[in-house]
Amino acid sequence: MSMRQNIPLTLRPAFQRTLLNMVILAAIPINDVAAEDYFDPDTVERHSGQRANLDLSTFSRSGGQAAGVYNADVYLNDNFVGSKSIRFEPGAKGLQPLLMKADFMRWGVKENATPAFVKISPAQEVTNIAAIIPQAQTRFDLSQQRLNVSIPQEYVRHNAQGYVGPDEWDDGVNALFMNYGYSGANNWSDYRQGSDNNAYLNLRSGINLGAWRARNYTTYSHSQGDDKWNSINTYVQRDIKPWKSQLVLGESYTPSEVFDSFPFRGAQLYSDDNMQPESLRGFAPVVRGIAQSNAQVTIRQDGNIIWQAYVPPGPFAINDLYPTSASGDLEVVIKEANGSVRQFVQPFSAVPIMQREGRFKYAFTAGQYRSTGGSAKKPGFIQGTGIYGLPYSSTVYGGSILSGDYTSASVGVGKGLGLLGSISLDGTFANARLMEETHRGGSFRFQYAKDFAMSGTTFTLAGYRYSTSGYYDFNEANGYYANTLPPGFRGNPNNRNEVEQARREWRNWRYSHNRRSKSQLNVNQSLGDYGSLFLSAYQQQYWGVTEKERSLTLGYNTSFNAINYSFNYSYSQTPFYTNHDQIFSLAVQIPFDRFLPKSWLNFSGSTDNRDKTTGAVGLSGTALADNNLSYSVQQGYTNQGVGANGNASVNYKARFGEYQAGYNYSRNTRQLNYGATGGIVVHPYGVTLSQPLGDTMALVRAEDAEAVRVLNQTGVLTDGRGYAVVPNVTPYRRTSLSLDANSLGDNVDLLSDSQTVVPTQGAVALANYPTVSGAKMVVTLRGRQVPFGARASVANGETLSHGIVDDKQHVYLSGVPSAGVVKVNWKGGECQAPFTLGKAQFGVNSVTAQCR
């Protein structure tokens, strides 16, 4: 049960009469001769007509509230800067927070804001910020659990939107974890006896020690009696915070912005975009203008305000925009102090390589080429790349690879062309020695991107690359394709002989035919209420052959009367195989909620260029409160003698993993398939099972709070000890994690139901929720006339449970021990009431105690 309410710590809903009385009191007219809002206790009478025995001194002033610890969302000058459990003490103008200098600095106050602020140590408590920083103030909004901190702008750092300082980045707890994924199947055929079984297991393991991360990816496969273990890669990694970079030692891949990516074993240092504020990631133009007064500048994209602030008179430059897409018109409105308005439009587009003005992105790699395709060549190499954002929507980039039998250099430029979109042009020149022969050549690439806002057309990427006959990239020069299957392979992947033969033929073919040119295009077209179209196409040519490698996908999606329609066409062709594939498909999805909640009827059909036609009808949906369970049942038919076929599957997302099972059949075959995915985390507090893990995660710690839901996380609940793992958290960003107080058990309370984590890359961030375990009770106080509004408390270890006495001398307390003393105090008096609970401590206990 959450303490995130108007009463600190453990005042609970059982105390409804007190709250009702307070509502009644709030409706009584205020004495209008008072200098400030004031409640006169004389206005409250007992049913007998005599003056009430009250102690409402705490609540007699506007905003008055009992002191204690509250979990508050903190806003600095109306900008959210984090959540924190804060102790509040009574002050002249209501509750005052007890904060340290380090808190103000973390929220954005300059370390040298004022001479008085400089003299204070970071750990020193600041009880009156206005005495240290002129015109500064704090105000606690109890109803919103919001602490508003107001600091004059001259004393606040100017940070980009979404900025999270390195001092907030959390390397997390030391941990050992394993992510597993298992799938298997039993296959039966009318053409053979018994079953053919296969299985696959992947294990992603990791160790975190401080800022260091060690990772390994290993797989296991079983097919036709053949068992194979394979270690994909192993490496250690850590961030270099001052450089906003990552250091990798071991087996990994080079970046792909300038050169094609390839596997290596060695060391790599590269810029990490995730460590930049969100508003500085990717590309956005610098918006420049001139303000004639203290003007309000508003920037809109697609009708949405993406930036708004006030600027002083003179030229301004805005470089921390949050664009909602990679291109589109920016509408800039300058509203002067006298009300006059000026407006202009700044178009922009960005190809993937482009960087913001002044941003330098680099990568440096040194090591040995690591073949994942079976090639014996493992040359040493050094690679360096750099990308730099220039003014006027321009970017320059380049790099070089140096190896024993291979050298290459690349240089390029990207440019925003305003209304015309954006382009990039680059050239790469290589010198490779293959089979005792030297090959020299070049490769030239063009890319284009543009949004046509008026027509709803988006060219996400249009590109063309041409390579001379003597050009080989580093992968080709080192036999990357030596052990891979050819594109368009139609054989049986479980037949070892057939697979090995295809690999040999493809290897020989690729050594003889290096790439010549490649074109690609991706287009999305919005049709408003009539749906959307998309097109994805590419064509690749090789030297020495006339046949082309081609792929095209065209689709149309729309919805009418809540019914979804999807039409798709695909075409593929490879130069290695002479034939090609064409498939046309149609799918219709109809809501079935009227008969079965959260379900759909599905109809689909397809036909190809070999006259193969399929059709199917099915039912799919989700179930359970959190949609943990998804299911699908389908019956189909295929011509050409295949006949009827069908399948059924179910997927359950549990707190400790995800589980799948399915069955399908056709005319001559049957298959039972199954799978499980999940994670195991070993941490300083024990072992916790989880759903499949991402690279960065959060460990929820709410001791003794069993089966408590983590909000907005499907199927994530605490275990019997109060621990859970949130499997995916964004690194270097504030992430608020909240627990569902309504799912708490009877004998435990949360002192805070929300925590904010800011993990570094790969961290296991700790989200610690203080709890208090114990019984709940309503105490009837006897022996002394205790006034309405008196404060009561009981100690349970180091935790204090608080409550307020109502007009019947009842007080509700939670998290109390089986025996203890209730301490009651009011203005001018106090008493103590010993109590002992009976055996039944679940639910709310009713106790009468003598207060002396």
TrEMBL record:
All copies of domain PapC N-terminal, residue ranges: 38-183
GO terms under cellular component: cell outer membrane
Database matches in PROSITE patterns: FIMBRIAL_USHER
Secreted listed as a keyword: no
Compartments, as annotated in UniProt: Cell outer membrane
Chain ranges of the PapC-like C-terminal domain: 782-837
SUPFAM superfamilies, sorted: FimD N-terminal domain-like (SSF141729)
An annotated GO BP: pilus assembly
Keywords on record: Cell outer membrane, Fimbrium biogenesis, Membrane, Signal, Transmembrane, Transmembrane beta strand, Transport
GO molecular function: fimbrial usher porin activity
Main localisation: membrane
Bilayer topology: Multi-pass membrane protein
InterPro entries per UniProt: Fimb_usher (IPR000015), Fimbrial_membr_usher_CS (IPR018030), FimD_plug_dom (IPR042186), PapC-like_C (IPR025949), PapC-like_C_sf (IPR043142), PapC_N (IPR025885), PapC_N_sf (IPR037224)
Superkingdom of the organism of origin: Bacteria
Similarity annotation: Belongs to the fimbrial export usher family.
PANTHER family: FIMBRIAL USHER DOMAIN-CONTAINING PROTEIN YDET-RELATED, OUTER MEMBRANE USHER PROTEIN
Protein name: Fimbria/pilus outer membrane usher protein
Species name: Pantoea sp. BJ2
